[in-house]
Amino acid sequence: MQRQKTNFEYSHKTELDIIEKVNDVSLAFSSALGLDFQSGQIYMTLLRLGPITTGSLAKEMKIDRNKIYRKIDELVSEGFVSMTMSSPKLCIPTDPENSIELVLHKKKKEIERINKVKKDIVRQIRGIVSVPFGTSTPTFRIIQGLTNVYSGISLSLDTAKNVVFIVTSIKDIMRMYHSDIPEKIKICRKNGGQVFLITDSDEKLMIPYIKRLHATENKVAKLPSNGRIIVFENTQMFMSDSTNTSDFMDENSDISLCTDAPEMINNIFSLCTFLWGIATPIKLT
What does the alpha-carbon distance between residue 111 and residue 159 come to, in Å, rounded to a whole number? Predict the structure, then answer.
């Protein structure tokens, strides 16, 4: 009996390792191609299973049929999936290398287009707008979509020179792992800034994700909420409601408040300072 239990535990652990590896690759692929995580998972599943009907794919992935039909249509229109002329129709994933080349080509064209018109557009705007850009009045805005949220955070890190607190779940760190944020943290530190990370797990399996974020120091603690707090000393703050829900696969569910209101920033910065004081250092080696 003891031997059977050990075999079962080993098999279960192996299955979890495979799932985690697939999710990790899906995150990397989704990030590289600008897809949401679920679309990346669908593409990876197609690569693993081979030609399959949309209905069978929905059953395999335990996703609502209507939702997966919409996702497949999007992947087809983007060139990542093709459909056979047979009956029933089968989904065929595009070769990964060709998919990446396709995205690179589109991105290059888009960058070239923006570079050609940016100076002229700014000149035209300045010609019709008489007041100076920006305002001294505190502002706030709502950012929807993980890509947009991470872009806003990356842009702020690019120019940060003071203390930055990142308080978020390990799941969020796993997603940041495949974004521009790790490189932007390195730039922030190079510019004289300090980035302090507080997360909810220091399990050995998670250490590579934490390590690659390149924070100045890392600590583990019970977080005040399931959300994300990123506060830049005296300048800006990002707060998301939850990063640890069942909607993990849907990047559009990520909604963040961004503000430069001094009172809010100072209050949250004080909270993060307190959390940092009671948190436990994470050993990265």
Answer: 22
Place of tokens 């730039």: 187
Beta-strand (E) ranges in 148-272?
163-167, 194-199, 217-220, 228-232, 236-240, 255-259
Q: pTM of this prediction?
A: 0.65
Give the separation between CA 39 and CA 103, rounded to whole angstroms. Answer: 15
| Structural domains for the chain | 2-94 (1.10.10.10), 140-281 (3.30.870.10)
What would the two tokens of residue 196 be?
Answer: 């302090």
77-81, 182-186, 194-198: least confident range: 77-81
* 38's tokens: 């679920």
- For strands 194-199 and 163-167, give the pairing: parallel
Neighbours of 162 (CB within 10 A): 13
Q: Nearest 5°: CA angle at 271, between 267 and 277?
A: 145
Give long-range contacts, CB 8 A cutoff, 24+ apart: 129-138.
138/259, 138/260, 138/261, 138/262
pLDDT of the residue at 124:
82
Render pLDDT for 7-56 as a digit per residue (tens, 0 to 9): 544 454 565 566 667 667 777 777 777 777 788 888 888 988 889 999 99
Contact 63, 102 (CB under 8 A): no
Residue 16: the pLDDT is: 57
Binning pLDDT at 50, 70 and 90, where does residue 235 land?
A: very high
Q: Which residues pair with 239 in a beta bridge?
A: 229, 257
